[in-house]
Amino acid sequence: MSNSVTPEKAQLGEFPWSLSATELRERASRTVEEAQGELTRLLASPGTKTVDQFLRPLDRILLRVRDVGSHGSFVFAVHPEEASRTAGREASEGADRFFNTFRINPDVFRSVRDLDLSRADGTTRHAVEKLLRDLRRAGAEKEAPVRARLLELSNEIDRVSNQYNENVAKLERGVDVTGPGDLVGLPPDFVASHPIGPKGTIRITTRYPDFHPVMAYADDPELRRRLLSEFMNRAHPENLPVLDRLLDARFELATTLGYPTYATYAIEDKMMERPEAVRTFLERVASVLREPARADFARFLARKRRDHPTAPRLDFWDAGFFGEGYYDGKLRTEEFGVDTKRLRAYLPYRSVRDGLFALCEELFGIRFHRATDGALWHPSVEAYDVTLGDRTLGRFFLDLVPREGKFGHAACFGIRDGIAGVQLPQSALVCNFLDPSVPAETARMQYSDVVTFFHEFGHLLHALFSGHGPWLYTTMSFIEWDFVEAPSQLFEEWARDPATLARFARDPDTGEAIPADLLDRLRGAEALGRSVRWLRQVSLAAISLELYDQPPQGVDTTATFRQVFDRYFTAPLTPEYHPTTAWGHLTGYSAFYYTYVWSLVIARDLLSPFHARGSLTDRETATRYAREILMPGSTRPAAELVRSYLGRDFNFEAFEAWTREGLELSRPTTGAIRSSP
């Protein structure tokens, strides 16, 4: 981390973090009201609609309201005070209502359609094309009664989505155990951070810092079973009717616009364009993964039978159906000498964070500066400004400790879209890696959480580099959503790279660096179960598509999840699970959860130039990647960005080779390797 340059400040303007709930509500309402007045006057202005006279002021109006919505949505997700979260939700919904009304406004549509673009450059033309497409898809050309109903539905969809996500954040579950004896197998730092409480028991929650270690390490299968059941039933039954209403509203919206299903509508403006293309793609990926996944499951079951000789099957709490699994970990330890509990000792958060920063400095020439100018929403949050040479790219925040009411997954939140000459981009990584009872500077991280940290940081880099274009509709926020995960999927690879890990993986208690031979074995251990993990993602993609690509009347969402999941896995999903009640991607990604698999295929190909140079830290390739993929934002279609970077269209070859490599790397060894004591 460097302090050689004093970065330009990237403040929040109208929305500093110190605002009370009342102040946030009032300022958000005032900003939206003023924007509506400006829009009315702009539409009424006489004369030819030109880029300077109409498009530029329109863009700035939209940017201001988008700031309101992004800030409010973020506060709703992270603020420790319920009153502020409520105010954030209201601010977000107020901005959503503005945009929902804006998009069906026929005067806006006619003005944008009739813009004089005779002197406009290609970037401006592309921005206008996307804006017009949004207006058409919202129904701006429909008759007034239809537009009125579309507006009602859009506003309801926003409210229902927020209710769904609020329930997930609030309705935490957990299990109680009688004492440390029930936690056999878990890392010492985990046990030490979970003392017996006032009721004479230890509470284990479904939050990630509890859930992932228990599923990976707890020797007691009953504890794993109980906790997985609670995890798979978060926000149940509360979110069952909420999800039903969301599916109903989205289906009516799509059919009112003339689409047969919501999936058809949602995928139309993505790279894939049609649900049929998605199904073909998912089946192609599944055909590559099925046999290797079966082989992995057979190995996991054989390992379970060494402990339980009469075990008839592999249960969901035994292996990596839903994240790190117990018997996957056993095999990684016994066959590869990789004990992820021991690996955890080399991954204190501060070292991981600083190592990640140093890597980005080497790859892209950027510098990180700790920002201390003003209070944040919680004492555990960190703020950083980022510079490239003498230019400030933007600001980001790290909020990595779970707490009551906070967003419970891992994501990169955009707080401010950056526009050249107007404002710098701001984003935040909101994750739940660190145990709140342990000082963040010394808290150990699961290796899987390190991979997730790098994944989300890939999003962050995309936001920072791309936030300097001319128009809101050319920012990263408006790139095709089935491409948006590609940069983050790619950046995970550095967390799996032994040379990168060797730079920062060190046990602070002993000063010992991670052993080189452990890093060598880690590649094979990490490849074990690769096909299982990605076949799971294919199944989830197919489930989200199924839920949204049919009339919702009479659909049992839990049964649909189970039926589609069972197409991909021989072990039937346990009937007591209700995973659709806490799957936040059903509100955001909706029908296009396939994004993760599609982006993976692209990301594997994006790595090809690095592999061709023989190094993941080749500065020339990294600079070209930033220039061709990250910096343009959505100034051009995603396929063109990829073509410019690769010199060709992307293809399946790198993904298929990666799958074959996973099989080769994870082959059973002739003799067990034991990890260091």
Write up what this structure looks like.
The chain is mainly alpha-helical and 677 residues long. Among the domains are: 21-169, Glutathione S-transferase Yfyf (Class Pi), Chain A, domain 2 (Up-down Bundle); 171-231, no CATH class. The chain is built from 27 helices and 7 strands. The chain has helices at residues 21-44, 51-78, 82-103, 106-113, 122-138, 144-170, 188-192, 208-217, 221-231, 239-256, 262-267, 275-307, 326-336, 340-345, 349-364, 447-466, 486-496, 498-504, 516-527, 530-548, 557-568, 585-588, 595-606, 608-613, 619-630, 638-646, 653-665, and strands spanning 174-177, 202-205, 366-370, 382-388, 391-399, 411-416, 426-430. A 5-stranded mixed sheet has the order 3-4-5-7-6. The chain has a two-stranded antiparallel sheet with strand order 1-2. Helix 1 runs parallel beside helix 3 (82-103), helix 3 (82-103) packs antiparallel against helix 6 (144-170) and helix 15 crosses helix 18. The longest helix has 33 residues, at 275-307. It is globular, with a radius of gyration of 25 Å.
Using the CA coordinates, give the radius of gyration.
Answer: 25 Å
Number of helices: 27
How would you state the average pLDDT, rounded?
93
Number of strands: 7
> What is the CATH top level name of the domain at 21-169?
Mainly Alpha
For the record, the CATH architecture of the domain at 21-169 stands as: Up-down Bundle
Helix content: 55-70%
Category from helices, strands and their pairing: mainly alpha
Strand content is 5-15%
